[in-house]
Amino acid sequence: MDSTELQAMSQTEEVATEVEDWAPPAPPTDLIFDDGEPLESNRHRIAMNVLIRSVKHELPRQDYFIGGNMFIYYSDRQVCNQDFRGPDFFVVLGVDPDPARLGWVTWQEEGRFPDVIVEFLSASTAQADKGIKKDLYERVFKTRDYFIYDPFEPTSLQGWHLDLDQGYQAIAPDDRGWLWCQSLELWAGVWTGDIQGDVTAWLRFFDSDGNLVLLPEEDAEQRAEIAEQRAERLAEKLRELGVDPEQVSKG
Length: 251
Fold this sequence. Notes:
Largest sheet: 6 strands, mixed
Number of domains: 2
CATH class of the largest domain: Alpha Beta
Number of helices: 7
Structural class: alpha+beta
CATH architecture of the largest domain: Alpha-Beta Complex
Distance between the termini: 109 Å
Radius of gyration: 27 Å
Number of strands: 11
CATH topology of the largest domain: tt1808, chain A
Order of helices and strands: HHEEHEEEHHEEEEEEHH
Helix content: 25-40%
Strand content: 15-25%
């Protein structure tokens, strides 16, 4: 073996050693989870919490995580550019529901992205929510269902479902103006009522039968009303039989 061959073998061994020693750069760890920016209005804050609390209360499964106004990290370039993305409401299905998360860091979550995102529009965010954010959720996040709604404009609800071949496709409303969310198997629609003293048109979820997905306090109130109606029907039946309901209850 001549010197040229020996030199070539030595260089090959050096390259092989370098390849074996190479490791991908570690993802960033110095992440920011609060930019100090408040929500656009108190109504925006209530609207976000209504979705979070109602879905948590009634979604018939445990393997999901719900976030609100929480940063989602998806690339080291995003971290370097401080290009924060914090959807107003999002749901990730089929994951550990760990409530201790400060944000959603995709490289710590096996590359999972939200299945559902809702953005509440305002004058300062509408353009981004309909433009660069929508493109990001479609092309990078590949979020299956994306909805936008302005809490001050009852006719503003729009939604898109992801077609893997054609991208986001607008969701056609039914005759009530509701949009079907395939990921959650729920309708997204407008409900007018009083929440925390604010009577307005709120974005709410409804089940497949059209029933409102209730907040915990709404559920408790409804159960109390049903129990009261049941008690009144029983009392009426006793009166028809000549029995005083009050005497029965005392006995």
